[in-house]
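so my prof wants the structure for this chain in the tokens format not the other one, which i didnt know existed until like an hour ago. anyway here's the sequence
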Amino acid sequence: MAVNTNYDIIGDIHGHADALERLLQKLCYTRRFGVYSHPEKRQVVFVGDFIDRGPKIRETLHLVRDMVLSGNAHAVMGNHEFNAISFHTPHTEKGGFFRDHSLKEITQHIETLEQFRHYDGEWAAFLDWFKTLPLFLEFDQFRVVHACWDDAHIHFLQHQYTGTTTDFLSKGNDKTDKTGVHTAVEETLKGKESVLPDGHSFLDKDGNLRHECRVRWWRDPSIREQLKDVMIDCPEEIAEMKLSAADNYHTYTNDKPVFFGHYWLKGIPRIENPNAVCLDYSVAKGGVLVACRLGEGMKLVY
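here's what i got, hopefully its the right format
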């Protein structure tokens, strides 16, 4: 499908400002007065996850926020930005914060904490900016979300999301929430998961034991034959297990293309499905930072 528009959509950055600058320059953006812009008025759309893991988180945030505030870019919230808001917002009713401060959560966020150790006011300003980011964007010819576009969740959030209020943070972080907020936020920002059969499990990239796998919801159902075709990091011993007709995994069926990140894909970047394009190729784990240039068709740049 040809998408005629002047946008460049960039995947998860995770504090890799040098890779971001190289990619912007490769896309012919130039920096003037500290802000990147394009001579042909093209705009960037960032899919979220600007913080954590990388060596230049502060620099990344300045680059991204300055582009957004100058009108040269758009951005959606990633799960790491939502987690940061929750981590740093006190829970006035229960005490503590909306996100736990256990070893797991601190480890995931430690690089950001370290790099802003002497910049408390700056970090507070970035947290306030995170709160202004939308959970998804819909343009005339395409859509952008961090992890998963589910029409039901998007419709729900259009009517329920009025900002990162304490009520929203409370429900969005509460696994026992019955209002639908937690599920909508969880799957929109972190993707859908499916329990592995027969008690199987695996260790994820951070060494955490998991009994659920993220679902490749963007995969064309016609090529889904085995578990490995629909589950990311599926254990080898069950990877070739055949899917049955009763297996019902979420599928994106709209003709309007959606672009997203989040999934730590590996290898040479490619477009598996022109209507659902993942742009996260693990720059924070030795991979590459990827953009999709829109215009006459689509072109990946990295």
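also thought this was worth mentioning. The chain has two domains: 7-190+254-301, 193-249.
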